[in-house]
Amino acid sequence: MLSHYLALLLFGGGVWNHYPLGVDGVPDKPNMIIILVDDLGYSDIQTYGHPSQEYNEIDRMAAEGMSLRQFYSADSVCSPSRAALLTGRLPVRSGVYSGDSNSRIFKVIHSSGLPLPEWTIAEMLQEAGYRTGMVGKWHLGINRENSSDGYYLPGKHGFDWVGLNLPYSNTLNCDETFFHSADGPMPQSCFLYDGDEIIQQPISFEGLTKRMVSQIKGFIDRVDDDPFFLYFAPTQMHGILYADEPFNGKSKRGIYGDCLNEIAWGVGEILDHLTKRGIAEETLVILSSDNGPTMEMCEEGGDSGDLRGGKGYITEGGIRVPTIAWMPGSIPAGVTSDEIGTLMDLLPTFAKLAGVQVPDTVQLDGFDITPMLFSGGNSPHDILLHYCADKVFAARKGNIKVVYMKGEVPDESYYQCTCPNGIYQSSADCTTDTTGVTTYNPPLIYNIAKDVSETYALSSDTYTDIIKEVTEYKNDFNDKLIAGMPLIDATKTCDVVPCCNSSASNCVCNYEGTTFSSGMCF
After folding, report:
1. Helix 78-87 crosses helix 346-354 at what angle (to 10 degrees)?
2. Residues 341-351: tens digit of each pLDDT
3. Fewest CB atoms within 10 Å of the CB: 22, 169, 248, 296?
4. Which residue numbers are catalytic?
């Protein structure tokens, strides 16, 4: 009888199983690419169960690689999740959280950002001889003293080359159609950089995806024979959705599907370019999302499928993210893994592949998952803690989820399509002042293999041993954890807001002759 792995090689598809290949079978110091889609919902793509989304290049990537079905972000919103990915550490360690406000992300008026001493994937690989590049959304701080010092930009965190990037984000205030923002795009919040230089304020999204992909191909071409690390963080599916021809107006899902298909096109272009260059088998590509979808945007928001909640929630829909690993020749095509992993695992995994010894002074929260990716190994996570800021809201052990705190996900009446008239209602159960959040003692228990929607809490009396084990682990972990100062509570000042044209009354450097809303700073 053929082994399961041999059957995969001959016929493709199937569920992951053990086979005789380890890290030793992976090319030495492979190239590594992270594609982090913004607010992509767990069930937004066809491979993860969406019934009407068109099959696209992300699905093709999954068909040629591994779908990781139980992969988690370290937070349910942008800044802390991205900090955790790049550092392999919980956001509470680096200080990328808020202690006393509900602003859980870096804003343009913050004079803080990801601390420079934090050791990022880019710095680690740079030190190991890799060429490092970044394109897309940053959202980990911009300036510290004035409007142009760029103290926290990607180039300060180990990236040799930085192309087109949004140091802040793509928000509803960036709407060029005046649909979601009656006064049009707001220069204070909406700007585009190339490297460390601001080139558009407010930003224009026309052709942006194609320009980013073109830059990425150029970066890959320039590295010659050196290994490289690329971090590509598309600005979609967050805020203003946009798509150019040939995608605009084509998807059954409307603009959301158009936008997703455009991103997928970019993914396909990158994979094809690796193949064209003859380096596909030397390159590990990981695609994931920073957190769950923005449900409040109705038809312009993403889909969590059967998972409960979305962005802003510690329920599965907010933190379980679709994740695909692709490396022809090392990862068989069409396999699925149900092992638990997190975005924090990428740094130690990349360290293993690059032959880097992580310094003892760096306290990581992620683990090396090369056995999961390349040899069908088990998850290294026994108990996985889910933090909101500096509080543990929930934990997972095997199929059991222990919930210590949570807020209620609004019912359908809350989501009466707030998007058609441009009004955005925000909802979340992860708030630092815990308004509307209930603390449970004993904690709630869910079997998320059987009840992925977290609908039916089980009797805590039946799970006393697990509750005891997980709670003791949580308390011991917190007792030993050294939390960073909450940086999102740092000084807010208009002095640090980027301005590309100080001679203009509101810092506009494109859209000549057009007047926009000034915001609080301009």
Report:
1. 20
2. 999 999 999 99
3. 22
4. 78, 139
